[in-house]
User: Fold these one by one.
Assistant:
Number 1:
Amino acid sequence: MDQHPTTPARGLTRPPQLRPGDHVVVVAPSGPIDPERLTAGTAILRSWGLRVTVAPHVLDTHPTLGYLAGTDASRAADLQDAWLDPTVDAVVCARGGYGVHRVVDLLDWAAMRRVPPKVLIGFSDVSSLHEAFAQRLGLATLYGPMCAAASFIEDAPTAEHLRRTLFDPATTTVLTGSAAAPLVPGRARGVTAGGCVHVLAAERGTPAARPSFAGAILILEDVNEHPYQLDRLLTQFLRSGALDGVAGIALGSWEGCGRPDRVREVMLDRLGPLGVPVLWELGFGHCPSTLTVPLGVPAVLDADAGTLTLEVPALAAR
């Protein structure tokens, strides 16, 4: 099947690529941070020639809810202050976990719209921020490794792919993984969107949720969700209309989700009837080695070739 229209899809505003000497701020909008991992991750960022600031509340822990990195107000303030700071070129999330849903509505989106675009990096729970930035700021973002995550610290190819995406994005326009294979064959064009399945499902019905992913190349991955739970989440997507008009789907990793063949069966059962190309295991998400995938960028998904090809680099030239 070929879902490849003759006119290119239109993407969101891309922030400028980074250069040595640029200023990045690390924030913790979700779960509590391991100080040793934070030190290791920020050292990698500094080795790239970046000036790195750790936001004031990154090492906080919520006084009663130990699964949160500080209070909702402090986590929101760190993110908003970094975004509004004219000296800051990128905001890097330290880790995922849970908590972004609690801060999205505390941010001053009107003020954040008034500043020039900059880079946002994160995955997992940060999916809520990616959706909000797309919907409320019209801004492309990076679904990539966080600086206190094991994949970033321990896997050199993961860090290198993020580095090239940030500094030389023209070299990372073709994304593929060693296990990439067609689940449903075909080719489609659309604007990339998506993230972690259970986080996106929790957005349904909220002000930050788009009505549907119509016209999108939807990227999906998750961690520690049993096949029946993935079935439930995807069924919610289907019943809510979130997948109406989707152009194609690129699946990432499913760490801790059970046997891969069972996960494949669920994906084929729930997504196959959509009649659009579906690519299995592109190589992003909660896996030991992960790609950085831009969101909000026009791209071509070729399930047969196992590739997602960006029509423009993830970040704009400077």
Number 2:
Amino acid sequence: MKVYDIEGFPNPARVRIALAEKNASQHVEFIAVDVMAGEHRSDAFKAKNPDAAVPCLELDDGFCISQCTAITEYIDGTFDGPSLTGKTARERAQISMMNRRAESGLLDAVGAYFHHATPGLGPDLETYQNAEWGQRQKGKALETMAYLDGVLARNDYMAGETFSMADITAFAGLIFADFAKIEVPSDLIHLSAWRTKVAARPSIAG
């Protein structure tokens, strides 16, 4: 299988971490997409992923899967190792719920701030910006950080006592927040402790 991505970007990082957690990185060919040159918006790439975004997973038969959650679910179901998406109905529901909260409330909100309220990726790629919307999304990201801190005051991880897809998404959201210069409030001690713990995992620390 092939993964089309750009190393260092937050959403591609989610898939790379998932693969590393499953000890499956060696089974994938990574193909770099020149996002800064707009390659992700080319007709050739949109034939694989109409979302015009990375990452995109292409299976050996040519079938393509986009959206990080869908890609992670495929990876989790394909390779051996600890489950990232849950084994029981309750686990799957809890992980899916927390993953979506981390994605929409943190990662996507930071992305909206970055692309709308800052220069983002530059004028050639940021063809439409709404600074007011971007600032509102920054506030949403900070609210979500506070919410996640409360979750982590009760749990070891985002969706309970085991590491999951929700932790990968939240961690990528904080990476993006650093890049966008959104500081994690210093009083969110549970979120900060969780981040230090997750950063030490072999799939992330390298």
